[in-house]
Amino acid sequence: MRGLSQRVKAMKPSATVAVNARALELKRQGVDLVALTAGEPDFDTPEHVKEAARRALAQGKTKYAPPAGIPELREAVAEKFRRENGLIVRPEETIVTVGGKQALFNLFQAILDPGDEVIVLAPYWVSYPEMVRFAGGVPVEVETRPEEGFVPDPKRVKRAITPRTKALVVNSPNNPTGAVYPEEVLRALAELAQAHDFYLISDEIYEHLIYEGTHFSPGRVAPEHTITVNGAAKAFAMTGWRIGYACGPKEVIKAMADVSSQSTTSPDTIAQWAALEALTNQEASRAFVETAREAYRRRRDLLLEGLARVGLKAVRPQGAFYILMDTTAIAEDEVKAAEKLLEAGVAVVPGTDFAAFGHVRLSYATSEENLRKALERFAQVLQKV
Ligand code: GLU
């Protein structure tokens, strides 16, 4: 009688979370390790945001919030989508969640019936296919290619559409490739969603971290079909606060909030007041985002130059803070390559669970000093091969 569900047994735990936890544990034990694992800003949360949290605490804002979030924050989220993304959104078409991850999780629970297909563009963030399966859906992979800068080809996406297609997930800027999709590609994908009547799920969590190209929200083209997901984590160095948000058709948003009402009730109330400050104190937040972005840009350039110098191949990322590094020069597969790099003192995430075979993911959300050290260690590994 006892035992675990088939559903949970079929689920792979998150590789990004697991590898990062392992790296942190090794460091705690005193191992000299450069961790390029975490998809997490190394900056501290800006002071104006922390201060808002202190204020909320002092004012006793410590009670449950409504499942879709405090009205003030939903208003600010709607305004953010209008101001920065050109989306016409009312507060009731928004939801605040426990990180962007819960928005996605609830969304798949809300829209998928058993056997429904969701197109995911490979390489993909490790959690999309697992969340789809967990909700009873079937992930359908469509490849993006290094020689095309990992930008999806809408014709290839179109060929994967079937009568069971319920959604397509796009993520630009992309984790793990760093690709920033051009507007015309996003428009073409949004038009496919409209023409074939499926949902377009646009995960825009890295929106503010773009070094080349510009951000475009496909919800502008297909507002009836698009759910736009974002959050405070990456833009405002607020990963641990767990505040994500989304907008989309009212009935979908309502269903997502119902899922919250039976699981988390609501996101953390204090963190919501802090996120409100991040979204509304535009001057202070913009200054923070710009400083962080310039730091990431310098780190990306340093890492790209360094990889080229030691003879490791990588597609130039235009956004987010990841590089997919080709590991064919290091070992026969990406898992063995990641092991060799770990022995040399650099922790990376093997590309396997991203469907990025023959690659590892490097996160450059770390200091330039760490990146230089990692590059030296890569060179040592290559010498031994
Ligand atoms: N999204 C980040 C990453 O890919 C954070 C960890 C996670 O939730 O996957 O590393």
Q: Calculate the mean pLDDT score and round it.
A: 97
> What percent of the residues sit in helical stretches (DSSP H or I)?
40-55%
Overall, the morphology is: globular
User: What percent of residues are in strands?
Assistant: 5-15%
Order of strands across the main sheet = 2-8-7-6-5-3-4
Descriptive notes:
The protein is an alpha/beta fold and 385 residues long. The chain is built from 13 helices and 12 strands. It has a 7-stranded mixed beta sheet with strand order 2-8-7-6-5-3-4, sandwiched between helices. A 3-stranded antiparallel beta sheet has the order 9-12-11. The chain is globular, with a radius of gyration of 20 Å. The mean pLDDT is 97.
What is this structure's SSE topology?
Blueprint (H helix, E strand, L loop, with lengths): L5 H4 L5 H14 L5 E2 L11 H12 L12 H15 L8 E4 L1 H13 L5 E6 L4 H8 L3 E6 L10 H6 L5 E7 L11 H14 L2 E5 L22 E6 L12 E4 L2 H12 L7 H12 L1 H29 L11 E5 L7 H10 L2 E2 L1 E2 L8 E5 L4 H17 L1
Parallel strand pairs: 1-10, 3-4, 3-5, 5-6, 6-7
Antiparallel strand pairs: 2-8, 7-8, 9-12, 11-12
Helix pairs in contact: 3-10, 4-10, 5-6, 5-9, 11-13
The chain binds glutamic acid.
Q: What's this model, at a glance?
A:
The protein has helices at 6-9, 15-28, 47-58, 71-85, 99-111, 127-134, 154-159, 183-196, 250-261, 269-280, 282-310, 334-343, 368-384, and strands at 34-35, 94-97, 117-122, 138-143, 165-171, 199-203, 226-231, 244-247, 322-326, 346-347, 349-350, 359-363. It is of the alpha/beta class and 385 residues long. A seven-stranded mixed β-sheet has the order 2-8-7-6-5-3-4, with helices on both faces. Strands 9-12-11 form a three-stranded antiparallel β-sheet.
